[in-house]
Specification:
five-stranded parallel β-sheet, globular, 6 helices, Rossmann fold, 44% helix, binds adenosine-5'-diphosphate, single chain
């Protein structure tokens, strides 16, 4: 069984890697789908986001990282994934995922959703908070993989 784990991953955090790793234990293959054009302002372009996630998941053999555009369910069908994987941190994540799951089910009844409850250590991690902290000079080690710490810091230092 193939699962699709879609997201912006701008950049990948240890919370995302944890979800991918746990999904990889349940599914034969997990395709991480980096959403090429999210309605969010991005720090990293699509290729950078793919590269950062690939390196973060290099030790998980059944995880593949690629990009996609358009509807998540359509991409899931294209790659033969019958499950969409998402992570849940809080009540607000739940509300958002709940609405999206109903919409996706309506669009593609053959694609189901599996949500992973975040691990306690990563409960407060989000890509947007990490970017904000790094931009203000805070230490993001232990929240993202080491190569992502460097990539984020060099983005902000090159902006000054
Ligand atoms: P999106 O723009 O699609 O929300 P994100 O990159 O922010 O993309 O998140 C992708 C998925 O990973 C979402 O399901 C999100 O809830 C989940 N996620 C993000 N951070 C964490 C975390 N710290 N622990 C578990 N799941 C997470």
């Amino acid at each position: 069984m193939t699962a699709l784990y879609p997201g912006s991953f701008d950049p990948v955090t240890l919370g995302h890697v944890d979800v991918a790793r746990r999904a990889a234990r349940l599914f034969d293959k997990v395709v991480v789908g980096v959403y090429a054009t999210p309605s969010k302002q991005l720090l990293f372009d699509t290729n950078e986001r793919i590269d950062l996630f690939r390196r973060a998941a290099a030790d998980i053999p059944n995880v593949e990282v690629t990009h996609f555009q358009g509807l998540v369910v359509r991409f899931a069908q294209e790659i033969g994934a019958n499950t969409i994987v998402r992570g849940l941190r809080s009540g607000s994540d739940f509300e958002y995922e709940f609405d999206m799951a109903f919409m996706n089910r309506r669009l593609a009844p053959d694609v189901d959703l599996v949500s992973f409850m975040t691990s306690l250590d990563y409960m407060f991690l989000s890509s947007s908070l990490i970017k904000e902290v790094a931009m203000l000079g805070g230490d993001i080690r232990g929240m993202v993989p080491p190569h992502v710490v460097d990539a984020v810091n060099s983005k902000f230092s090159s902006r000054v």
